[in-house]
Amino acid sequence: QVQLVESGGGVVQPGMSLRLSCVASGFSLNNNGVHWVRQAPGKSLEWVAFIQNDGGLIYSADSVKGRFTISRDHSKSTVFLQMNSLRADDTAVYYCARDIWLLEWRFFDLWGRGSLVTVSS
Amino acid sequence: EIVLTQSPGTLSLSPGERATLSCRASQSVSSNYLVWYQQKPGQAPRLLIYGASSRATGIPDRFSGSGSGTDFTLTISRLEPEDFAVYYCQHYGTSMHTFGQGTKLEIK
User: Are strands A115-119 and A10-12 parallel, antiparallel or unpaired?
Assistant: First the structure.
């Protein structure tokens, strides 16, 4: 079955760190760019960060710049989101999503089920 | 930064009715990069429409997308019980990817 699976979420105190992982099954994640998108409770979706398939292009939202780092390990076919200096407003479900470039179109075609991160003292 | 505004915030309809959801961009965007997703409670978003009007694999033909420039529409021709969910539009940007705030489609 083709799917993405996130892990690594949990409850942490403000200022602490957490690392999320995104692993694919049924296909090789090494062939695709990957995004992280988060959703605070009851809120809309917020794009967080992107890494190209070869890691050559990386960019992130201003709200997490300098605190969150996206990376990937091709040997493990895994994409990571290292989250430092966590704040209460980082509390959200974090999804990884597969990036697709199809001819002239661009979109996220496959999403994981998400990993909940709660930042609370 | 492009801002996407979806309307209405909540749409109350009955099965069998037609649903029309709007997504307005703060500036003109390429329709190639306008995407619609469906999200049900406790689930991940699901790709519905890309390129403003192309249905993703496995999406029923009662779903259709249209629009250009700043105004885009998602239409569900005849609502089925499983269509009641939250719908998001997205602009796939150059270094930023913006989502609208969502339209909740609820059963009347």
Answer: parallel
Mean model confidence pLDDT for chain A:
96
Question: Considering only CB atoms, which chain A residues are within 8 Å of B56?
Answer: 109
Q: Are A113 and B44 an interchain contact pair (Cβ–Cβ within 8 Å)?
A: yes
% of chain B at pLDDT higher than 90: 98
Contacts of B81 (CB under 8 A, 6+ apart): B15, B107
Distance, in Å, from the CA atom of A48 to the CA atom of A40, rounded to the nearest integer, reads 12
What pLDDT does A52 receive? 96
Residue whose structure tokens are 């597969």? A98
Query: How many whole angstroms separate alpha carbon A91 and alpha carbon B81?
Result: 32
pLDDT score for B10: 98
Strand pairing partners for A25?
A3
pLDDT digits (tens, 9 = 90+) for B37-90: 999 999 999 999 999 999 999 999 999 999 999 999 999 999 999 999 999 999
The whole-angstrom separation of Cα A99 and Cα A76 is 19
Could you say which residues from 66 to 85 on chain A have a Cβ atom under 8 Å away from some Cβ of chain B? none
Mean pLDDT of A89-105: 95
B42/B3 Cα distance (integer angstroms): 26
Which amino acid is residue B52, in one-letter code? A
